[in-house]
Design goal:
6-stranded antiparallel β-sheet, S-adenosylmethionine decarboxylase, adenosylmethionine decarboxylase activity, decarboxylase, 22% helix, spermidine biosynthesis, alpha+beta
């Protein structure tokens, strides 16, 4: 099997849907993982009291997708970290379709930058 480097996408969403709905967010992140071709191992989501937001993670064989929401300012921070054959940009597109943000910032970081030892 060919090694593919780990890609970490950081999505900042403004004006997204479902920022206080843990079930909808669990479904969205799980569907995003499936769209990327990732293997879902489990998920855990927590709703804060008084609709103060959600924190959640979908654990993947290829790493994870996590979300933290601040509904009082209409903001969600999402991390999509995948390695192997999984395609994180497909996960990002699936999340755009489900959460329909008014605006988005996407940052990509390659997490495979391993230094070679000096001789």
């Amino acid at each position: 099997m060919e090694y593919r480097p780990g890609t970490h996408l950081l999505m900042d969403l403004n004006g997204a849907r479902h920022l206080t709905d843990a079930g909808a967010l669990r479904d969205a992140l799980t569907a995003a993982a499936q769209a990327a071709g990732a293997t879902v191992l489990g998920a855990h989501f927590h709703s804060f009291p008084d609709r103060a937001g959600i924190t959640g993670v979908v654990l993947l064989a290829e790493s994870h997708i996590s979300i933290h929401t601040w509904p009082e300012i209409g903001f969600a921070a999402i991390d999509i970290f995948m390695c192997g054959a999984a395609e994180p940009h497909r996960a990002a597109e699936a999340l755009r379709q489900r959460l329909r943000p008014e605006s988005e910032t996407l940052t990509e970081v390659q997490r495979n930058q391993v230094s070679q030892p000096s001789l």
